[in-house]
Amino acid sequence: MAFTTTMLSWSVLEYRNTMGTQAAYARVAISWATDYLLKCATATPGKLYVGVGDPNADHRCWERPEDMDTVRTVYSVSSSNPGSDVAGETAAALAAASMVFRTVDPKYSASLLKTAKNVMQFAMQYRGAYSDSLGNAVCPFYCSYSGYKDELLWGAAWLYRATNDVFYFNFLKSLGADDLPDIFSWDNKYAGAHVLLARKALLNKDQNFQSFKGEAENFMCKILPDSPYSSTQYTPGGLMYKLPNNNFQYVTSITFLVTTYAKYMKAAKITFNCGSLVVDYILGVNPMKMSYMAGFGANFPKRIHHRGSSLPSLASHPQAIGCNSFQPYYYTSDPNPNILVGAIVGGPNQNDQFADDRTDYSHSEPTTYNNAAIVGPLAYFAGGSHA
Fold first, then answer.
1. What is the spatial distance between Cα 89 and Cα 6, in angstroms, rounded to a whole number?
2. 302: in domain
3. Structural domain harbouring 145
C-alpha cells in the first residue's frame, strides 16, 4: 500500500497538468491511503504499524469485506524489531504525498512531511528487514526479497526531493554503490530511485547526480528490446515479460520509469533512445485481443481473482457467506457478478495466453500497485508529451 501511494503521488507530481479533472480523484485516492499511513506511524510512539490481519488465515478464507470474521491481528516494527524496508517505503509515500498536497492543503502537507522525516529517521537508525522481524506474518506473501538498502535509498531520495535538505543527500552518498537491477517493483526500488535522482542531473544540471543518471540509463539499456545490453524477455506479441507471477506489476512500473525518463530527457534536450512501450498491449492491442483492465473495452477478464468481485453483493445476497462457503462462487466458470472497473490483472503468460481463470491468481489477480504505476504512463500519452 505504501508503494502504491508513492507511485500514485509520483504520477500526480509529474503529470497533474495533463490529468485534468482526474487529478482531484487521484488526490482523494492518495489521501485515503496517507490518512491510514499517518495513523500507522503516529498511533504509538516508537512503533510503526505495518499490517492488519493474519495473512495465513486470510488466504484460507474467501469472504466479502462486509462478512470478514478472520482474526485482525495487528503487526508493527520497532527499535527492537526493525523494518527499514517498510519504514523507508512509508517515508517515501508520505514525502511524495506531501508535495502533492503542498499547495492545495498546506496543513495536511506539513503533517505528512513531518511524519515522513520521523519514519525515515527510524528506518535509518534501526536497520533490519521487516520479514526478519515478523516472519510468517509477511512471508511468503510480501517478503523483503531485495533487502532494505533499496528502500533506504528510495525513502531518502523522496525526502531529498521534498525538502532539498543536504542531510538526505549525504545519507544517499553514504549508502555506497547500488545494485543495478533490470526490474522495478514494490520490493526492488533501486531503478526507481535512480530515475528519481537522475532528474536532478537532467533538469537541474547538478553534477552531484551524474552517477544516478548513469545508473538510470544502465537500467534502460537492460529493458529496451533492441539494446545489445538487454536482459529483458519479450513475448511473441511484444509484451515485456519479467516473471510468471503478476507480470503486469513489472510492466506498469517499468513503463512508468521509461516514460518519465523520456519526459526528463525531452525537457533537458538530450538524446537517449527509449524504444517502444507497452501500454497499448495492456489495453487490448495483443494476440488475445483482450483488454487486461476490467470493464475497459469489449473483451476483458470476467473471472478475476478478487473476493468482492466474485461473490454476490449484499443487495442480491443479504445473508452472510461464511469463510468456507465460497466454493460455489470461487470454482464456478460463470463470470464474476461484480465488475471491478479499472482493475489491471496479472496478465498473460510468456506465450501471450490468458485463461481468464479466477483460481489462477498469478495471472488473474489485480493489485493496487499494478494500477498506481500505470496512471503516469496513461497521463503521459494522453498529454501527447512523448518524445
1. 8
2. no
3. 1-176
As to burial, measured by CB atoms within 10 angstroms (0-12 exposed, 13-18 middle, 19+ buried), residue 263 is buried
Q: Determine whether 334 is an active site residue.
A: no
Question: Nearest-CA neighbor of 7 among 181, 285, 249?
Answer: 249
CATH number at residue 11: 1.50.10.10
Q: What is the pLDDT of residue 278?
A: 64
- Rounded to whole angstroms, how far apart are CA atoms 33 and 27? 10
**Known catalytic membership, residue 365:** yes
Q: Is the peptide bond before 366 cis (omega within 30 degrees of 0)?
A: no
Q: Does some domain include residue 5?
A: yes
Check: CB of residue 265 under 8 Å from CB of residue 304: no
| List of residues 6+ apart from 285 with CB closer than 8 A | none
The tens digit of pLDDT for each residue in 127-136 reads 999 999 999 9
Determine which one of 150, 182, 215, 356 is catalytic.
356
For range 285-297, the mean pLDDT: 96
For CA atoms 113, 119, 121, 123, the dihedral sign is negative
302-327 tens-digit pLDDT? 999 999 999 999 999 999 999 889 99
Model pLDDT for residues 22-67, shown as the tens digit of each residue: 999 999 999 999 999 999 999 999 999 999 999 999 999 999 999 9
